[in-house]
Design a protein that fits this description.
alpha/beta; about 20% strand; single chain; disordered C terminus; 11 helices; nine-stranded mixed sheet
Length: about 280
């Protein structure tokens, strides 16, 4: 663990006096409680003690609190190996990294991800989940670009990104975990709304969430990414960039276990929207 003064330990009955400049180590916190803490800004980092990788997640949260730029400069090593953050280690962890700018690239882009994972001989279940996340992240960036939103385009007709706006998806892997993250150059994600959509699906179920919002969708894709993952990472630098990522265990036996104890990291002090 990093220094003890950066960590606050809580249970369901000790939620009153939290500080949002600490990593919250939770014991038995329900997903509903976790999202309420995050949405009300009582904390920005929640690590569940029951999580299989809680020690790594604690170190990652402390690193992001101390040096938030690490998350944007070295996202893979910050999340997967927070005790060893460097450009060299970042390169060692990379399984896949490519830029994209248009919907027309999606099929070949996803095929490249699939090929990279099959060459690594990852389990078919893990590949399926990574592909779901990559598909959703790719699609969200293209259709949530400022130009496409302003033009009110349909979900089949998006305006391509410019060279300066190119987004990217990176996938890093070590012996225990795999981390897939997407970075855009907008920095406009409304973190509170993003969390509310996932929370609504958790509380009300997917079927009852379909008609939640006419403008931004029901959040079902975001919910599914969160549901399958062991942790979620969100970083927003206002009008500069957004980074969203999810971790998964590489071991198939760990992958098929129910994942109720999840870690969530949010860096959005200068984020877009209502954060």
């Amino acid at each position: 663990m990093e220094s003890e003064e950066k960590v606050q330990i809580v249970h369901n009955n000790s939620l009153a006096d939290l500080k949002n400049d600490r990593v919250t180590l939770g014991h038995g916190l329900t997903p509903e409680v976790v999202f309420d803490l995050l949405k009300t800004k009582k904390t920005r980092h929640v690590v569940q003690a029951e999580s299989e990788f809680f020690q790594v997640a604690l170190k990652a949260g402390c690193q992001i609190l101390d040096n938030p730029e690490h998350l944007y400069n070295y996202p893979l090593s910050t999340i997967l190996t927070p005790e060893k953050i460097s450009a060299e280690n970042e390169e060692e962890l990379i399984l896949f990294k490519e830029k994209f700018s248009s919907l027309e690239e999606k099929k070949s882009f996803l095929m490249n991800i699939d090929d990279s994972m099959k060459k690594r001989r990852l389990s078919s279940l893990l590949i399926d989940r990574i592909m779901l996340v990559a598909d959703e992240l790719f699609t969200n960036v293209i259709f949530n670009s400022p130009e496409t939103l302003k033009a009110n385009r349909s979900r089949t007709d998006a305006i391509p990104l410019t060279k300066e706006q190119e987004a990217s998806i990176s996938i890093g892997i070590n012996q225990d975990q795999i981390f897939v993250c997407c970075r855009d150059s907008f920095g406009t994600l409304d973190v509170k709304k993003f969390l509310e959509r996932i929370s609504h699906c958790l509380t009300n179920g997917v079927r009852n969430s379909i008609q939640l919002d006419d403008e931004g969708g029901a959040g079902i894709g975001s919910f599914l990414m969160f549901e399958f993952a062991s942790s979620m990472v969100i970083g927003v630098q206002k009008n500069k960039q957004t980074l969203i990522g999810f971790t998964f265990p590489t071991d198939r036996r760990s992958l098929i276990r129910p994942r109720n104890a999840k870690s969530i990291h949010i860096d959005s002090k200068n984020g877009g929207g209502n954060v």
